[in-house]
From TrEMBL:
CDD domains: ASKHA_NBD_HK_plant
Enzyme class: transferase
MF terms in GO: ATP binding; D-glucose binding; fructokinase activity; glucokinase activity
Protein name stated in the entry: Phosphotransferase
GO biological process, one term: glucose metabolic process
Organism for this UniProt entry: Brachypodium distachyon
Organism phylogeny: Eukaryota, Viridiplantae, Streptophyta, Embryophyta, Tracheophyta
PANTHER family (alphabetical): HEXOKINASE, HEXOKINASE-7
Gene name of the record: LOC100832143
Stored Pfam families: Hexokinase_1, Hexokinase_2
Reactions catalysed, as given in the entry: a D-hexose + ATP = a D-hexose 6-phosphate + ADP + H(+); D-fructose + ATP = D-fructose 6-phosphate + ADP + H(+); D-glucose + ATP = D-glucose 6-phosphate + ADP + H(+)
Amino acid sequence: MVAAAAAERVVAELREQCATPAARLDGVAAAMEEEMRAGLEHEGGSKIKMIISYVDNLPNGSEEGLFYALDLGGTNFRVLRVQLGGKDIKPESREVSIPPHLMSGNAAELFGFIASALAKFVADEGRSNGVLNGRQRELGFTFSFPVRQSSITSGTLIKWTKAFSIDDAVGEDVVAELQTAMEKQGVDMRVSALINDTVGTLAAGSYYDEDVVIGVILGTGSNAAYVEKANAIPKLEGELPKSGNMVINTEWGNFSSSCLPITEYDQALDEESLNPREQIFEKLISGMYLGDIVRRVLLKIASQSSIFGDINRTKLKTHFILRTPDISAMHHDETPDLRVVAEKLEENLKITGTSLETRKVVVEICDIVTSRSARLAAAGIVGIIRKIGRGTAGNKEKTVIAIDGGLFKHYGKFRQSLESALVELLGEEASKSVGIKLANDGSGLGAALIAAAHSQYIN
Ligand code: ADP
Ligand code: MG
Protein backbone atom coordinates (compact mmCIF):
# COMPACT_ATOMS: atom_id res chain seq x y z
CA MET A 1 0.00 0.00 0.00
CA VAL A 2 2.82 2.36 0.94
CA ALA A 3 4.51 1.46 -2.34
CA ALA A 4 1.41 2.27 -4.33
CA ALA A 5 1.00 5.57 -2.49
CA ALA A 6 4.51 6.66 -3.46
CA ALA A 7 3.81 5.84 -7.09
CA GLU A 8 0.53 7.69 -6.94
CA ARG A 9 2.35 10.74 -5.57
CA VAL A 10 4.72 10.77 -8.54
CA VAL A 11 1.81 10.48 -10.95
CA ALA A 12 -0.23 13.16 -9.20
CA GLU A 13 2.70 15.54 -9.37
CA LEU A 14 3.22 14.73 -13.05
CA ARG A 15 -0.47 15.31 -13.74
CA GLU A 16 -0.31 18.69 -12.08
CA GLN A 17 2.92 19.80 -13.75
CA CYS A 18 1.78 18.71 -17.20
CA ALA A 19 -1.64 20.29 -16.93
CA THR A 20 -2.65 22.33 -19.97
CA PRO A 21 -5.93 24.07 -19.18
CA ALA A 22 -7.27 26.32 -21.93
CA ALA A 23 -5.92 29.47 -20.28
CA ARG A 24 -2.39 28.13 -20.34
CA LEU A 25 -2.72 27.01 -23.94
CA ASP A 26 -4.02 30.45 -24.85
CA GLY A 27 -0.84 31.86 -23.37
CA VAL A 28 1.23 29.44 -25.44
CA ALA A 29 -0.63 30.43 -28.62
CA ALA A 30 -0.13 34.13 -27.84
CA ALA A 31 3.58 33.63 -27.15
CA MET A 32 3.94 31.66 -30.38
CA GLU A 33 2.26 34.46 -32.33
CA GLU A 34 4.53 37.05 -30.73
CA GLU A 35 7.68 35.05 -31.50
CA MET A 36 6.52 34.61 -35.09
CA ARG A 37 6.22 38.37 -35.50
CA ALA A 38 9.63 38.93 -33.95
CA GLY A 39 11.20 36.32 -36.21
CA LEU A 40 9.73 37.96 -39.33
CA GLU A 41 11.05 41.36 -38.26
CA HIS A 42 14.73 40.65 -38.79
CA GLU A 43 17.21 37.76 -38.90
CA GLY A 44 17.77 36.53 -35.35
CA GLY A 45 14.70 38.39 -34.06
CA SER A 46 13.38 35.28 -32.33
CA LYS A 47 14.32 31.80 -31.22
CA ILE A 48 12.05 30.64 -33.97
CA LYS A 49 13.78 31.38 -37.23
CA MET A 50 10.80 32.05 -39.51
CA ILE A 51 12.81 30.96 -42.54
CA ILE A 52 11.95 32.38 -45.96
CA SER A 53 11.36 29.31 -48.13
CA TYR A 54 11.51 31.00 -51.56
CA VAL A 55 8.26 29.20 -52.33
CA ASP A 56 5.90 32.03 -53.27
CA ASN A 57 3.35 29.99 -55.17
CA LEU A 58 1.78 26.74 -54.13
CA PRO A 59 1.01 24.03 -56.70
CA ASN A 60 -2.20 24.63 -58.60
CA GLY A 61 -2.69 21.36 -60.45
CA SER A 62 -1.12 22.45 -63.74
CA GLU A 63 2.18 20.71 -62.92
CA GLU A 64 3.14 18.08 -65.47
CA GLY A 65 5.86 15.57 -66.16
CA LEU A 66 7.91 12.99 -64.35
CA PHE A 67 9.55 14.15 -61.15
CA TYR A 68 11.52 12.67 -58.31
CA ALA A 69 11.68 13.55 -54.66
CA LEU A 70 13.99 12.67 -51.84
CA ASP A 71 12.64 13.12 -48.33
CA LEU A 72 15.20 13.07 -45.55
CA GLY A 73 13.36 13.05 -42.24
CA GLY A 74 14.45 12.01 -38.79
CA THR A 75 14.60 8.24 -38.98
CA ASN A 76 14.00 7.31 -42.58
CA PHE A 77 14.31 8.73 -45.96
CA ARG A 78 12.05 8.13 -48.87
CA VAL A 79 12.73 8.28 -52.55
CA LEU A 80 9.74 8.92 -54.70
CA ARG A 81 8.86 9.17 -58.36
CA VAL A 82 5.65 10.65 -59.64
CA GLN A 83 4.12 11.33 -63.03
CA LEU A 84 2.27 14.63 -62.66
CA GLY A 85 -0.66 15.77 -64.74
CA GLY A 86 -4.25 15.31 -63.61
CA LYS A 87 -5.52 15.09 -60.06
CA ASP A 88 -5.18 11.36 -59.66
CA ILE A 89 -1.45 11.05 -59.18
CA LYS A 90 0.11 7.89 -57.84
CA PRO A 91 3.62 8.30 -56.52
CA GLU A 92 5.85 5.24 -56.33
CA SER A 93 8.15 5.32 -53.38
CA ARG A 94 10.71 3.40 -51.42
CA GLU A 95 11.60 3.91 -47.79
CA VAL A 96 15.08 3.34 -46.46
CA SER A 97 15.98 3.56 -42.79
CA ILE A 98 19.08 5.55 -41.99
CA PRO A 99 21.75 3.50 -40.20
CA PRO A 100 22.28 5.22 -36.82
CA HIS A 101 26.06 5.45 -37.28
CA LEU A 102 25.52 7.68 -40.31
CA MET A 103 23.62 10.19 -38.18
CA SER A 104 26.81 11.19 -36.41
CA GLY A 105 29.49 10.41 -38.97
CA ASN A 106 30.49 12.75 -41.76
CA ALA A 107 28.53 14.48 -44.48
CA ALA A 108 30.09 12.62 -47.41
CA GLU A 109 29.07 9.26 -45.92
CA LEU A 110 25.49 10.32 -45.26
CA PHE A 111 24.98 11.90 -48.68
CA GLY A 112 26.79 8.98 -50.33
CA PHE A 113 24.37 6.55 -48.70
CA ILE A 114 21.38 8.60 -49.81
CA ALA A 115 22.67 8.96 -53.38
CA SER A 116 23.32 5.26 -53.68
CA ALA A 117 19.75 4.46 -52.62
CA LEU A 118 18.57 6.97 -55.19
CA ALA A 119 20.78 5.38 -57.85
CA LYS A 120 19.21 1.98 -57.13
CA PHE A 121 15.72 3.44 -57.30
CA VAL A 122 16.48 5.01 -60.68
CA ALA A 123 18.12 1.83 -61.98
CA ASP A 124 15.01 -0.20 -61.09
CA GLU A 125 12.63 2.00 -63.05
CA GLY A 126 10.82 0.25 -65.86
CA ARG A 127 9.62 1.78 -69.09
CA SER A 128 6.11 2.06 -67.70
CA ASN A 129 7.20 4.39 -64.96
CA GLY A 130 6.58 7.65 -66.69
CA VAL A 131 8.02 9.57 -69.55
CA LEU A 132 11.14 11.71 -69.48
CA ASN A 133 11.08 12.66 -73.18
CA GLY A 134 14.82 13.08 -73.29
CA ARG A 135 14.79 15.50 -70.37
CA GLN A 136 17.22 15.41 -67.50
CA ARG A 137 15.66 13.93 -64.37
CA GLU A 138 14.65 16.55 -61.83
CA LEU A 139 14.37 16.16 -58.09
CA GLY A 140 12.73 17.95 -55.20
CA PHE A 141 14.83 17.58 -52.06
CA THR A 142 13.02 17.63 -48.74
CA PHE A 143 15.54 18.23 -46.00
CA SER A 144 13.92 18.38 -42.59
CA PHE A 145 16.46 20.38 -40.61
CA PRO A 146 16.88 24.14 -40.24
CA VAL A 147 18.45 25.54 -43.40
CA ARG A 148 19.16 29.16 -44.27
CA GLN A 149 17.91 29.29 -47.83
CA SER A 150 19.46 31.61 -50.36
CA SER A 151 17.25 30.51 -53.26
CA ILE A 152 14.81 27.73 -54.08
CA THR A 153 17.78 25.52 -54.99
CA SER A 154 20.31 26.31 -52.30
CA GLY A 155 20.64 26.59 -48.57
CA THR A 156 23.16 26.07 -45.80
CA LEU A 157 22.54 23.90 -42.78
CA ILE A 158 22.12 26.02 -39.64
CA LYS A 159 22.21 23.13 -37.16
CA TRP A 160 21.19 19.53 -36.81
CA THR A 161 18.23 18.47 -34.68
CA LYS A 162 16.62 15.17 -33.61
CA ALA A 163 19.21 12.35 -33.55
CA PHE A 164 21.55 13.90 -36.13
CA SER A 165 24.90 15.44 -35.37
CA ILE A 166 27.34 15.63 -38.28
CA ASP A 167 29.68 18.51 -37.61
CA ASP A 168 31.23 18.90 -41.04
CA ALA A 169 27.85 19.49 -42.67
CA VAL A 170 26.93 22.53 -40.58
CA GLY A 171 27.31 25.72 -42.63
CA GLU A 172 27.52 23.77 -45.90
CA ASP A 173 25.12 23.93 -48.83
CA VAL A 174 23.10 20.73 -48.59
CA VAL A 175 22.13 20.81 -52.27
CA ALA A 176 25.77 21.01 -53.36
CA GLU A 177 26.57 18.05 -51.09
CA LEU A 178 23.73 15.99 -52.53
CA GLN A 179 24.63 16.98 -56.09
CA THR A 180 28.27 15.92 -55.57
CA ALA A 181 27.19 12.59 -54.05
CA MET A 182 24.79 11.95 -56.96
CA GLU A 183 27.54 12.64 -59.49
CA LYS A 184 29.81 10.14 -57.73
CA GLN A 185 27.04 7.56 -58.04
CA GLY A 186 26.56 8.38 -61.72
CA VAL A 187 23.03 9.71 -61.18
CA ASP A 188 22.26 12.42 -63.73
CA MET A 189 19.70 14.46 -61.90
CA ARG A 190 19.15 18.13 -61.17
CA VAL A 191 17.94 19.35 -57.78
CA SER A 192 15.20 21.77 -58.81
CA ALA A 193 13.93 22.59 -55.34
CA LEU A 194 15.18 22.40 -51.78
CA ILE A 195 12.38 22.49 -49.27
CA ASN A 196 11.55 21.73 -45.68
CA ASP A 197 9.14 18.86 -44.94
CA THR A 198 6.57 21.29 -43.58
CA VAL A 199 6.65 23.23 -46.85
CA GLY A 200 6.22 19.96 -48.78
CA THR A 201 3.27 18.99 -46.62
CA LEU A 202 1.70 22.40 -47.18
CA ALA A 203 2.28 22.16 -50.94
CA ALA A 204 0.87 18.65 -51.24
CA GLY A 205 -2.08 19.62 -49.06
CA SER A 206 -2.91 22.65 -51.14
CA TYR A 207 -2.62 20.65 -54.37
CA TYR A 208 -5.73 18.74 -53.33
CA ASP A 209 -7.45 21.48 -51.36
CA GLU A 210 -6.83 25.18 -51.95
CA ASP A 211 -7.96 26.02 -48.42
CA VAL A 212 -4.80 24.44 -47.01
CA VAL A 213 -2.59 27.30 -45.80
CA ILE A 214 -0.68 25.63 -42.97
CA GLY A 215 1.50 22.50 -43.03
CA VAL A 216 2.53 20.76 -39.85
CA ILE A 217 4.90 17.87 -39.15
CA LEU A 218 4.32 15.65 -36.14
CA GLY A 219 6.79 12.83 -36.63
CA THR A 220 10.21 12.24 -35.17
CA GLY A 221 10.42 15.99 -34.82
CA SER A 222 7.90 18.81 -35.10
CA ASN A 223 7.65 21.95 -37.18
CA ALA A 224 5.16 24.07 -39.14
CA ALA A 225 5.02 26.22 -42.27
CA TYR A 226 2.33 28.58 -43.51
CA VAL A 227 1.46 31.08 -46.20
CA GLU A 228 2.34 34.61 -45.10
CA LYS A 229 1.62 37.92 -46.83
CA ALA A 230 4.89 39.11 -48.32
CA ASN A 231 4.28 42.63 -47.02
CA ALA A 232 4.04 41.26 -43.47
CA ILE A 233 7.68 40.09 -43.64
CA PRO A 234 9.88 43.10 -42.86
CA LYS A 235 13.06 41.03 -43.26
CA LEU A 236 12.18 40.02 -46.83
CA GLU A 237 14.65 41.79 -49.10
CA GLY A 238 14.30 42.82 -52.72
CA GLU A 239 11.23 42.86 -54.87
CA LEU A 240 8.06 41.40 -53.41
CA PRO A 241 6.90 38.21 -55.12
CA LYS A 242 4.15 38.68 -57.70
CA SER A 243 1.80 36.40 -55.83
CA GLY A 244 2.06 38.70 -52.81
CA ASN A 245 2.71 35.62 -50.68
CA MET A 246 5.67 33.78 -49.24
CA VAL A 247 5.72 30.43 -47.49
CA ILE A 248 7.47 30.69 -44.15
CA ASN A 249 9.08 27.71 -42.45
CA THR A 250 8.60 28.66 -38.81
CA GLU A 251 11.06 26.16 -37.24
CA TRP A 252 8.71 26.21 -34.26
CA GLY A 253 10.55 23.27 -32.72
CA ASN A 254 12.93 25.78 -31.15
CA PHE A 255 10.09 27.73 -29.52
CA SER A 256 10.30 28.13 -25.78
CA SER A 257 8.37 30.21 -23.30
CA SER A 258 7.73 30.47 -19.60
CA CYS A 259 4.14 29.44 -20.44
CA LEU A 260 5.26 25.92 -21.31
CA PRO A 261 4.58 23.25 -18.69
CA ILE A 262 8.07 21.84 -18.10
CA THR A 263 8.81 19.07 -15.62
CA GLU A 264 11.97 17.69 -14.04
CA TYR A 265 11.82 14.89 -16.64
CA ASP A 266 11.86 17.35 -19.52
CA GLN A 267 14.75 19.22 -17.97
CA ALA A 268 16.80 16.07 -17.56
CA LEU A 269 15.95 14.89 -21.06
CA ASP A 270 17.04 18.24 -22.45
CA GLU A 271 20.30 18.37 -20.50
CA GLU A 272 21.24 14.86 -21.59
CA SER A 273 20.25 15.42 -25.22
CA LEU A 274 22.46 16.01 -28.26
CA ASN A 275 21.26 19.63 -28.35
CA PRO A 276 20.75 20.95 -24.80
CA ARG A 277 18.62 24.11 -24.43
CA GLU A 278 17.55 23.87 -28.04
CA GLN A 279 14.32 22.59 -29.62
CA ILE A 280 12.43 22.82 -26.32
CA PHE A 281 8.97 22.79 -27.93
CA GLU A 282 9.98 19.85 -30.14
CA LYS A 283 11.20 17.94 -27.08
CA LEU A 284 7.79 18.37 -25.43
CA ILE A 285 5.70 17.32 -28.38
CA SER A 286 7.41 15.11 -30.93
CA GLY A 287 7.68 11.38 -31.45
CA MET A 288 11.39 11.12 -30.82
CA TYR A 289 10.92 12.18 -27.20
CA LEU A 290 7.50 11.12 -25.84
CA GLY A 291 8.58 7.54 -25.13
CA ASP A 292 11.66 8.74 -23.32
CA ILE A 293 9.70 11.14 -21.12
CA VAL A 294 7.48 8.23 -20.08
CA ARG A 295 10.56 6.09 -19.41
CA ARG A 296 11.97 8.77 -17.11
CA VAL A 297 8.74 8.88 -15.10
CA LEU A 298 8.72 5.09 -14.80
CA LEU A 299 12.33 5.18 -13.59
CA LYS A 300 11.42 7.68 -10.88
CA ILE A 301 8.53 5.47 -9.79
CA ALA A 302 10.80 2.43 -9.73
CA SER A 303 13.22 4.27 -7.46
CA GLN A 304 10.55 5.47 -5.05
CA SER A 305 8.17 2.54 -4.89
CA SER A 306 8.12 -1.17 -5.42
CA ILE A 307 5.10 -1.39 -7.71
CA PHE A 308 7.28 -2.95 -10.41
CA GLY A 309 8.60 -5.53 -7.96
CA ASP A 310 12.24 -6.15 -7.37
CA ILE A 311 13.58 -5.25 -10.80
CA ASN A 312 16.93 -4.67 -12.39
CA ARG A 313 16.80 -1.05 -13.50
CA THR A 314 19.48 -1.29 -16.20
CA LYS A 315 16.94 -1.27 -19.03
CA LEU A 316 14.85 1.43 -17.43
CA LYS A 317 17.96 3.62 -17.26
CA THR A 318 18.72 3.23 -20.96
CA HIS A 319 17.88 6.37 -22.93
CA PHE A 320 15.28 6.01 -25.69
CA ILE A 321 14.70 2.32 -24.95
CA LEU A 322 10.97 2.99 -24.71
CA ARG A 323 9.78 4.37 -28.03
CA THR A 324 6.72 6.39 -28.88
CA PRO A 325 5.12 3.52 -30.87
CA ASP A 326 5.39 1.47 -27.64
CA ILE A 327 3.62 4.06 -25.55
CA SER A 328 1.01 4.41 -28.29
CA ALA A 329 0.42 0.63 -28.18
CA MET A 330 0.10 0.68 -24.37
CA HIS A 331 -2.18 3.72 -24.44
CA HIS A 332 -4.54 2.02 -26.90
CA ASP A 333 -4.57 -1.29 -25.04
CA GLU A 334 -8.20 -2.37 -24.77
CA THR A 335 -7.72 -5.85 -23.36
CA PRO A 336 -9.42 -6.25 -19.94
CA ASP A 337 -6.16 -7.14 -18.19
CA LEU A 338 -3.98 -4.69 -20.16
CA ARG A 339 -2.03 -7.49 -21.76
CA VAL A 340 -0.31 -5.20 -24.26
CA VAL A 341 1.00 -3.03 -21.44
CA ALA A 342 2.36 -6.12 -19.70
CA GLU A 343 4.04 -7.26 -22.92
CA LYS A 344 5.61 -3.89 -23.67
CA LEU A 345 6.93 -3.55 -20.12
CA GLU A 346 8.44 -6.99 -20.33
CA GLU A 347 9.78 -6.70 -23.86
CA ASN A 348 11.38 -3.27 -23.50
CA LEU A 349 12.12 -2.86 -19.82
CA LYS A 350 12.30 -6.43 -18.47
CA ILE A 351 9.57 -5.60 -15.97
CA THR A 352 7.51 -8.76 -15.35
CA GLY A 353 4.56 -9.87 -13.25
CA THR A 354 2.92 -6.45 -12.96
CA SER A 355 -0.49 -6.13 -11.35
CA LEU A 356 -3.44 -4.67 -13.21
CA GLU A 357 -3.24 -1.61 -10.95
CA THR A 358 0.38 -1.01 -11.94
CA ARG A 359 -0.45 -1.35 -15.62
CA LYS A 360 -3.18 1.24 -15.19
CA VAL A 361 -0.64 3.61 -13.70
CA VAL A 362 1.55 3.14 -16.79
CA VAL A 363 -1.38 3.89 -19.10
CA GLU A 364 -2.16 7.03 -17.15
CA ILE A 365 1.42 8.25 -17.55
CA CYS A 366 1.23 7.70 -21.30
CA ASP A 367 -2.03 9.62 -21.30
CA ILE A 368 -0.63 12.57 -19.35
CA VAL A 369 2.49 12.89 -21.51
CA THR A 370 0.70 12.44 -24.82
CA SER A 371 -2.22 14.72 -24.13
CA ARG A 372 0.16 17.48 -23.03
CA SER A 373 2.01 17.00 -26.31
CA ALA A 374 -1.09 17.02 -28.50
CA ARG A 375 -2.59 20.03 -26.72
CA LEU A 376 0.63 22.02 -27.02
CA ALA A 377 0.79 21.20 -30.72
CA ALA A 378 -2.79 22.49 -31.01
CA ALA A 379 -1.79 25.71 -29.23
CA GLY A 380 1.06 26.19 -31.71
CA ILE A 381 -1.38 25.75 -34.60
CA VAL A 382 -3.75 28.27 -33.04
CA GLY A 383 -0.85 30.74 -32.76
CA ILE A 384 -0.37 30.50 -36.54
CA ILE A 385 -4.11 30.68 -37.25
CA ARG A 386 -4.32 33.88 -35.23
CA LYS A 387 -1.20 35.32 -36.85
CA ILE A 388 -2.90 35.11 -40.25
CA GLY A 389 -6.18 36.46 -38.92
CA ARG A 390 -8.19 33.30 -39.39
CA GLY A 391 -10.29 31.08 -37.17
CA THR A 392 -12.54 33.75 -35.71
CA ALA A 393 -16.31 33.38 -35.49
CA GLY A 394 -16.99 35.92 -38.26
CA ASN A 395 -14.46 34.38 -40.60
CA LYS A 396 -15.92 33.19 -43.89
CA GLU A 397 -12.70 31.76 -45.30
CA LYS A 398 -11.99 28.16 -44.57
CA THR A 399 -8.59 27.39 -43.05
CA VAL A 400 -7.25 23.90 -43.48
CA ILE A 401 -4.13 22.51 -41.84
CA ALA A 402 -2.34 19.64 -43.57
CA ILE A 403 -0.49 17.39 -41.12
CA ASP A 404 2.05 14.67 -41.88
CA GLY A 405 4.27 12.53 -39.68
CA GLY A 406 4.18 9.18 -37.95
CA LEU A 407 3.04 10.53 -34.59
CA PHE A 408 -0.10 12.10 -36.05
CA LYS A 409 -0.69 9.28 -38.49
CA HIS A 410 -0.43 6.34 -36.14
CA TYR A 411 -1.31 7.62 -32.66
CA GLY A 412 -5.12 7.88 -32.58
CA LYS A 413 -5.43 9.24 -29.05
CA PHE A 414 -2.86 11.92 -29.85
CA ARG A 415 -4.89 12.95 -32.88
CA GLN A 416 -8.17 13.07 -30.93
CA SER A 417 -6.61 15.10 -28.22
CA LEU A 418 -5.16 17.61 -30.70
CA GLU A 419 -8.49 17.99 -32.46
CA SER A 420 -10.46 18.54 -29.28
CA ALA A 421 -7.93 21.09 -28.00
CA LEU A 422 -8.32 23.05 -31.24
CA VAL A 423 -12.07 23.27 -30.73
CA GLU A 424 -11.57 24.19 -27.08
CA LEU A 425 -9.21 27.03 -28.01
CA LEU A 426 -11.03 28.42 -31.03
CA GLY A 427 -14.55 27.92 -29.69
CA GLU A 428 -17.27 25.73 -31.22
CA GLU A 429 -18.44 28.33 -33.72
CA ALA A 430 -15.07 29.56 -34.98
CA SER A 431 -13.65 26.07 -35.15
CA LYS A 432 -16.18 25.25 -37.88
CA SER A 433 -14.07 27.30 -40.30
CA VAL A 434 -10.96 25.30 -39.41
CA GLY A 435 -10.18 21.81 -40.64
CA ILE A 436 -7.40 19.31 -40.26
CA LYS A 437 -6.26 16.90 -42.90
CA LEU A 438 -3.75 14.08 -42.94
CA ALA A 439 -1.33 14.71 -45.81
CA ASN A 440 -0.01 11.20 -46.15
CA ASP A 441 3.61 11.40 -47.31
CA GLY A 442 2.90 14.97 -48.32
CA SER A 443 6.43 16.02 -47.50
CA GLY A 444 7.82 13.99 -50.41
CA LEU A 445 5.01 14.59 -52.88
CA GLY A 446 5.16 18.32 -52.14
CA ALA A 447 8.85 18.35 -53.06
CA ALA A 448 8.06 16.78 -56.44
CA LEU A 449 5.32 19.36 -57.02
CA ILE A 450 7.58 22.28 -56.14
CA ALA A 451 10.37 20.80 -58.28
CA ALA A 452 7.88 20.74 -61.19
CA ALA A 453 6.97 24.36 -60.58
CA HIS A 454 10.69 25.25 -60.73
CA SER A 455 11.64 22.89 -63.55
CA GLN A 456 14.48 24.02 -65.82
CA TYR A 457 12.16 23.24 -68.75
CA ILE A 458 9.63 25.86 -67.75
CA ASN A 459 10.26 29.25 -69.30
P1 ADP B 1 10.38 11.24 -40.06
O1 ADP B 1 10.20 12.17 -38.93
O2 ADP B 1 11.65 10.49 -40.03
O3 ADP B 1 10.11 11.85 -41.39
P2 ADP B 1 7.84 9.88 -39.78
O4 ADP B 1 7.04 11.05 -40.15
O5 ADP B 1 7.56 8.60 -40.48
O6 ADP B 1 9.38 10.05 -39.88
O7 ADP B 1 7.62 9.67 -38.24
C1 ADP B 1 8.32 8.71 -37.54
C2 ADP B 1 8.03 8.93 -36.09
O8 ADP B 1 6.66 8.73 -35.85
C3 ADP B 1 8.76 7.96 -35.20
O9 ADP B 1 9.98 8.51 -34.77
C4 ADP B 1 7.80 7.78 -34.04
O10 ADP B 1 8.11 8.70 -33.04
C5 ADP B 1 6.45 8.15 -34.59
N1 ADP B 1 5.65 6.93 -34.77
C6 ADP B 1 5.82 5.96 -35.68
N2 ADP B 1 4.91 4.98 -35.50
C7 ADP B 1 4.16 5.34 -34.46
C8 ADP B 1 3.07 4.75 -33.75
N3 ADP B 1 2.55 3.56 -34.10
N4 ADP B 1 2.56 5.41 -32.71
C9 ADP B 1 3.06 6.59 -32.35
N5 ADP B 1 4.09 7.20 -32.94
C10 ADP B 1 4.63 6.59 -33.99
MG1 MG C 1 9.21 13.13 -42.55
